[in-house]
Design goal:
- The protein is mainly β.
- The protein has one domain (3-106).
- It has 2 helices and 10 strands, in the order ββββββββααββ.
- A hairpin with a 3-residue loop joins strand 2 and strand 3.
């Protein structure tokens, strides 16, 4: 797990670079919120829950998946060396259970605030 925040119901919202965007209830129930965008795996890095309940998160790179490269460090080095600028900021809307793109063309997007 690379980053987490809490929603208004007290669920832990976690950005897991391997498993996806997760919601973990106070009782420990894990729910997958999203793991792909238009068929492409999301490589999560950071997450924040906004006051309106929407979840914003960074997708570090659409080129190098940590699960395929030996971990997040290895994937980040490859992306930085290549300078592909394929990182993006995404929004998950819990009411629609949908992900949309907010920004693209970022060089290894690693945070949101």
């Amino acid at each position: 797990m690379l980053s987490f925040d809490f929603d208004s119901a007290g669920n832990l919202i976690a950005a897991d670079a391997i498993r996806g965007l997760l919601s973990i209830s106070p009782k420990g129930q894990i729910t997958m919120l999203a793991d792909t965008m238009e068929g492409d795996p999301i490589r999560y890095d950071a997450v924040i829950v906004a006051g309106n309940g929407k979840i914003y998160f960074s997708d570090a790179s659409t080129r190098f998946a940590p699960s395929e490269r030996g971990g997040t460090f290895e994937a980040s080095v490859l992306d930085i060396v290549e300078q592909s600028s394929t990182g993006r900021i995404l929004e998950y809307d819990p009411s629609k259970q949908a992900v949309r793109i907010i920004a693209t063309g970022l060089s290894f997007a690693t945070g949101v605030r």
